[in-house]
Amino acid sequence: MSDPACDPACDAFPTVSVIMPVRNEERFLRDSVEAILAQHYPGGFDVCLAMAPSSDATDAVAARLVRDHPQVRMVANPSGTTPAGLNAAIAATTGEIIVRVDGHAELSPGYIERAVQTLVRTGAVNVGGVQRAVGVTVFEQAVAAAMGSPFGVGGARFHTGGSQGPVDTVYLGVFRREALERAGGFDACLIRNQDYELNIRLRAAGGTVWFDPSLWAVYRPRGSLLALGRQYFEYGWWKREVLRIHPASLKARQAVPPLVTVAVVGGALTGLRWRCALLAPIGYLAGVALASLKVGRGFTATTARLVVVLPTMHLSWGVGFLSPRGARHPRRCRQ
Predict the structure, then answer these.
(1) Residues 129 and 15 grouped into a single domain
(2) What CATH number corresponds to the domain at position 127?
(3) What are phi and psi of 12, to 5 degrees?
(4) Is 51 helix (H, G, I), strand (E, B) or coil?
(5) How much is the pTM?
(6) Tens of pLDDT along 114-151?
(7) Which of 45, 51, 177, 297 has the fewest beta carbons under 10 Å from its own?
(8) How far from chain centre, in Å, is Cα 132?
(9) Is residue 236 in some structural domain?
(10) DSSP letter string, 289-331
């Protein structure tokens, strides 16, 4: 655990501030913060919770954490959005290194020290590792399995693992404060995908974003099909907004969900008049069935749910990406 009164050797380690946007995290907040406080980091660190308005007992849980742990403090995030909360927490802290953690994530042992060492070793401006999705219910376990599969989410290394090295983005992120502030922080208008967009600007400024597979953090998947569909619809919608700002940032894996959505929906509708068009949705569903068997490791309860989970993720993302830009069209802003 971090010791504010460590010996002079600690001066060789940069100071660290852990920032966490928090909203409706009653179930996971204590475990998440305690996993942070259990970290051993010789240079010491503090934790700042950016508190959005919650409809559950999150505020009470946070208040107890602040009361019980001098390292933990709170800052208000009245807008309730993730990027505004992150920016508020950055402004309220002074650490030379900024470690982002979400309210439902749990850092692996040694995460902070290893990440800082990797920053120093590589000269990167942002370091991250693997998003290790862990479900509790059978449905959540199916979502977790889909999130770790290339068929489910593409080949991004933070999802599927891989060798260390430069990447376009990472999960969460451990940043050099000077680079983060020079880039202008998180874009407060991007409700989703603000981390990816920030990494675009960091790389455009000459910085390196580095993936280290020895780092990992637990992620808690959505617990219902409706919540999952809404989440992936928003992922697709906000990815389109990032592409509006940074058109050259499009990756091949990001074009797959909207193309699949057009093929499946268009094939199903056209198939009412031209039977051959049904090959597209039938072929896709066959692929889903085979992938579900592989990811679920045979005929299991997880496999049965993957048959529904995978199309929900793909098609919700695709529909969100293809949806017209309406009243939600954001301004470009970084607050």
Answers:
(1) yes
(2) 3.90.550.10
(3) -75, -15
(4) strand
(5) 0.88
(6) 999 999 999 999 999 999 999 999 999 999 999 999 99
(7) 297
(8) 11
(9) no
(10) HHHHHHHTTSSSHHHHHHHHHHHHHHHHHHHHHHS---TTPPP
DSSP E strand boundaries for 87-182:
97-100, 106-107, 126-133, 165-166, 174-176
87 contact partners, CB below 8 Å, separation of at least 6: 185, 186, 188, 334, 335
The whole-angstrom separation of Cα 65 and Cα 74 is 10
171 and 24 both lie in a single domain = yes
Q: Are 207 and 127 in contact (CB under 8 A)?
A: no
How many residues are present in the chain?
Answer: 335
Q: Are 107 and 219 part of one and the same domain?
A: yes
Strand bridging mode 165-166 / 209-219: antiparallel
Extract the tokens encoding 173: 């992120």
DSSP state string for 123-140: --SEEEEEEEE--SSHHH
| 127 contact partners, CB below 8 Å, separation of at least 6 | 115, 118, 119, 170, 173, 174, 209, 210, 211, 212, 215
Residue 31 maps to a domain: yes
315 and 193 part of one domain: no
